Amino acid sequence: MNKITVKDCEIILNGSDNKRNSYMKLFFVWLLICSPLLLLGNILGLASVALWLANTAIMTLIARYVMTRKRGDEDSWDGY
After folding, report:
1. Sign, CA torsion 55/59/64/65
2. Which of 11, 74, 78, 80 is deepest in the core (most CB within 10 A)?
């Protein structure tokens, strides 16, 4: 039988604290990002902010596709 020592319990508890702290940091970053967006939405209207966010997401996906796609033989930078 495996016995769990006090040291093991401390590691388990510290690990959960680190995970909880990372979630709290992520939440505060989310608040920092969304607070100006909500203020901008209040000023300009939520539809314009939603369209702006959708445009940003689409452009990010296009850029990620272009950067990670496999190049073919006809894809060259020679101008031909």
Report:
1. positive
2. 11
| Confidence tier at 1 by pLDDT (50, 70, 90) | very low
Distance, CA of 79 to CA of 21 (rounded, Å)? 51
In angstroms, the CA 56 to CA 3 distance is 53
What is the value of pTM for the model shown? 0.43
Handedness of CA 16, 22, 28, 30 (dihedral sign): negative
The answer to whether 27 and 39 are in contact (CB under 8 A) is no
The separation between CA 22 and the C-alpha centre of its own chain, rounded to angstroms, equals 13
Q: Is 7 exposed, middle or buried (0-12, 13-18, 19+ CB in 10 A)?
A: exposed
